[in-house]
């Protein structure tokens, strides 16, 4: 018998082995933070009054970046600003579209 084998045989198995430990990993559920990119892109392409759609698109992209980094508070702040700008861009776009339809009709009726 080798010396190392003899020492192991003499010591024997551990008398009080430590109980097996387990590791619990808590995965946080991702809070859904809408970044309004599609809405902002729509406002940028079709109703870009006063460049609000483009500014909203920029804030939407910043919101997505913050969400990817894990900064949910920053993502919510940028998303809230993008939403507000999108609402204003949509309202102004609708008003301008209606005025562009109504004003020429009124002008044509005045000259007839």
TrEMBL record:
> Per the record, a Pfam family?
CD225
- List the InterPro entries: CD225/Dispanin_fam (IPR007593), IFITM_antiviral_protein (IPR051517)
Keyword annotations for this protein? Membrane, Transmembrane, Transmembrane helix
Q: What is its main location?
A: membrane
Cellular location(s): Membrane
Locate the transmembrane regions by residue number.
Answer: 37-59, 87-111
Similarity comment: family membership: Belongs to the CD225/Dispanin family.
Q: What is this protein called?
A: Interferon-induced transmembrane protein 3
| Native species | Saguinus oedipus
